[in-house]
Structures are given as structure tokens and as C-alpha cells.
Design a protein that fits this description.
Elements (H helix, E strand, L loop, with lengths): L1 H24 L2 E8 L1 H4 L2 E2 L10 H4 L2 H4 L12 E9 L2 E8 L10 E2 L1 H13 L3 E7 L21 H6 L10 H13 L3 H5 L11 E9 L2 H4 L2 H21 L7 E5 L18 H18 L8 E5 L6 H22 L4 H10 L9 H10 L11 H18 L8
Parallel strand pairs: 1-6, 1-7, 3-6, 7-8, 8-9
Antiparallel strand pairs: 2-5, 3-4
Helix pairs in contact: 5-15, 10-11, 12-13
Length: 397
């Protein structure tokens, strides 16, 4: 019996060790997240609890908080992040957690993306995030294939023409940082401690979330679709990954129907959203056969909090009218008329509105109001879309 037992134990150990070796040889999955300020992320962790007020979002709390009510730290999802803090480029890395947003207490899409990819894949992953605020695709992230930047007539008249070195600077910085992070075993192991040279890595997906600066410039809007197509193709060529799964995060400030909003009607958000959807739809028609497929758009519009936006604009406009009255630019009667025109009553927030604002918001409307509910749900949607493109069928609900 002893010999039989010994054989069984030996066999079990062999199986366990064998599976460990096989797991170790599995390439490290690497995901790139890139963009501007909304990829950086403005949502403060203090807004997470407010998700409990919404029955549809409340269930997510158990998926992002631990038993003590603190935000989860990923077990096997790691991140290296370059951004601008204190007016200089800063690199931070570690396990995915709160703190890879605007500051150490905020998140962007990477948080929920990392949490849900970690949950789904059951293996180590590395997220490389490159994001700087206030950047355009037309100039700052301009891809090489788009050619030199041609300034608009207005830019020429005003002498507001980007310097040669500005054009494409952040595209080049993005590529440089990705390559530096993946340079060798030592560079990867700085982030993922148990990474093995035998294991290797594979680029598994790219998420792009950007657009505000291009949306604010009609000249940039006109070229956005072509620039986005060039961008996707150039990234794939750069890393010799013609079928690299690629997600374009669609700008969703003011929701899925921005024209129906009564605030900030001057901004061509709808027109810009069309250029992003068009890039996804036309990509396969514009590129060579090896580069076709595996490009989708994920709309952030459904996750924008419209009721919270109403409160934002009530606060903002009422404060603006008060300032104008104080400066003598507007009369008190005119301010009251504006309040009535917008349905603001006396203009002051109700107790409920103030409570909602304090619990749910931590930034301005162009930063999705700094809402944790928005960034958590959108990050999860990105993870689900990426897994679907990779044909990984796992239920994250």
C-alpha cells in the first residue's frame, strides 16, 4: 500500500508541476490603453458609494469593493502608466488599483478594465497606459501615415501653426513608452515580478479613448475619420500585429443624443461622434487586406449621467448669472428670467440636488463629471468587448 500511495503522490505532484510549467510558458497578455484626459481618468473613489443608489449599478459595488468596503486591488493585473502630473511626465506602475487616474485617489477606464480582465482570464496581464490631457489626434497623436499637418486658414491668419516637432509628438512618445516597457525581461519584471523570459509576451489588444480636443476644432473634425484609420493601421504596423484587436472608445459626453440637450448647444458633439463611428465602419474599406477586421467602437454615451449633468449646469449657469449681476453686466430680473427659461426655479440647488452632486460628481462635464459610476461601467464594457473580440467567452456578470 505504501508503494501505491507513493506512486499516487508522485503522479499528482508531476501533474501539478507539469501544469505549473505549462502555465509559466503561457505568454503574458499585454493590453495598451491610450488617449487624452478621459483615458487619464477623473473619477474620485469617493463617488463609488453612490452607485448603490442605482439598482442597476448597485450590484457592481460587490465586484469593485472588498469586505471592508475598500476598492479592490487586482491580484494578477499589472499596469505601467505614463502621464503628466505636476507639469511633467511621470511613470507609475504596480498592480491595478485606484490611483492610476488624475491622481492617487482617482481612476480612469483602466480600473474596471483591469478588474474584469483579471477576473475573466485567471492569468497575469499587463496594461500599458499612455495618456496626456488636452491632446488632439490631428496634431499631438498624429500618426505617420497621415502626413504633415496642414493648418486651417484661420490658423494661418492667426499664426497659430503647430511647430514641426509638436506634430505627432505624443504618438511617438506612446510608441517609445510601449517599447521601453517591453524592451526585455528586466523591464517587464519591474512591473510583473514573476515574469519569465521563457514565458514571453503577446500584444493582445489596444483601447483608444480620446476626442474632446478634436471635437472643439472643425478643421480637426473634418479629418478625424481618416486620421483614426491611419492611427489604427500605423499602430498595427509598428508592432507587426495586423490583426491586433482594436477598440475605439466613442466620445459620450452628453450621452448618445447630444443634440437633444438644452445645454452647451454650440459644441458639435454629434458631428464628432459620427466621425468616430465612421472610422470603425470604413476601416476595412480603406486598408490593405492583412489589416482588416477586429476593429470596433464602444460607446461611452450610455454611461454618461444626464441627470447629474443637469445639476452641473444648474450650478454653473446660476453662478455665472450671479457673477454677471455683481459685475453689473446683467440685472437681477434678467437672471431670474434665465432661471425660469431653463426650469431652474430660483437657481439654487435643492437639498437633494446638492446631496446628489456631493456624492456622485468630482469633476466637470467634459470629464464625465468625475463619476465613478460612469468610469466603472464603461471600463467593464471595454473589457467585455475585448474579451469578445478575443473569443474568450466568460460571463462577467
Amino acid at each position: 500500500m505504501k508503494s501505491v500511495t507513493k506512486i499516487l503522490i508522485t503522479s499528482v505532484l508531476a501533474l501539478v508541476l507539469g501544469s505549473s510549467v505549462m502555465a509559466a510558458k503561457k505568454p503574458l497578455k499585454v493590453y495598451i490603453l491610450a488617449g487624452q484626459s478621459n483615458m487619464q481618468g477623473s473619477a474620485h473613489k469617493s463617488t463609488f458609494a453612490a452607485m448603490g443608489d442605482d439598482p442597476m449599478a448597485a450590484k457592481l459595488l460587490s465586484e469593485i469593493l472588498d469586505q471592508n468596503g475598500d476598492p479592490l486591488v487586482c491580484d494578477k493585473a499589472w499596469i505601467s502608466y505614463i502621464t503628466q502630473r505636476s507639469q511633467r511626465d511621470t511613470v507609475i506602475h504596480g498592480k491595478v488599483k485606484v490611483g492610476y487616474g488624475f491622481d492617487d485617489e482617482r481612476i480612469g477606464p483602466e480600473y474596471a478594465f483591469g478588474l474584469y480582465m483579471d477576473k475573466a482570464l485567471k492569468e497575469p496581464i499587463l496594461i500599458i497606459k499612455t495618456a496626456w490631457g488636452g491632446k488632439s489626434l490631428a496634431v499631438d497623436f498624429r500618426p505617420p501615415s497621415a502626413g504633415p499637418y496642414e493648418p486651417s486658414l484661420t490658423e494661418k491668419e492667426r499664426g497659430n501653426i503647430p511647430e514641426h516637432e509638436e506634430v505627432g509628438h505624443y504618438y511617438r512618445e506612446m510608441i517609445r513608452f510601449i517599447r521601453a516597457t517591453l524592451k526585455d525581461t528586466k523591464s517587464i519584471r519591474k512591473i510583473v515580478p514573476n515574469y519569465s523570459a521563457k514565458q514571453g509576451y503577446e500584444l493582445s489588444g489596444f483601447v483608444w479613448f480620446q476626442g474632446w480636443n478634436d471635437m472643439c476644432n472643425r478643421h480637426h473634425i473634418e479629418q478625424y475619420t481618416e486620421n483614426m484609420i491611419y492611427f489604427i493601421s500605423d499602430v498595427r504596423k509598428e508592432f507587426e500585429m495586423p490583426a491586433l484587436p482594436f477598440i475605439v472608445g466613442i466620445l459620450g459626453v452628453y450621452g448618445t443624443d447630444p443634440d437633444s440637450r438644452k445645454f452647451d448647444k454650440r459644441l458639435p458633439v454629434t458631428d464628432f461622434r459620427k466621425t468616430q463611428f465612421a472610422a470603425v465602419e470604413l476601416y476595412d474599406l480603406k486598408v490593405m487586406p492583412p489589416y482588416r477586421g477586429h476593429v470596433i467602437g464602444v460607446d461611452s454615451g450610455p454611461f454618461y449621467e444626464l441627470e447629474l449633468s443637469d445639476i452641473y449646469w444648474k450650478r454653473r449657469l446660476n453662478n455665472e448669472w450671479k457673477r454677471k449681476v455683481k459685475q453689473g453686466i446683467m440685472t437681477s430680473e434678467e437672471a431670474r428670467e434665465e432661471c425660469l427659461r431653463y426650469g431652474f426655479g430660483d437657481g439654487e440647488l435643492t437639498t437633494q440636488e446638492q446631496s446628489t452632486w456631493d456624492r456622485c460628481a468630482s469633476n466637470a462635464e467634459y470629464h464625465y463629471l468625475g463619476s465613478g459610476k460612469t468610469f466603472i461601467r464603461f471600463g467593464k464594457a471595454l473589457a467585455e468587448a475585448m474579451l469578445e473580440m478575443e473569443n474568450i467567452k466568460i460571463n462577467l456578470r
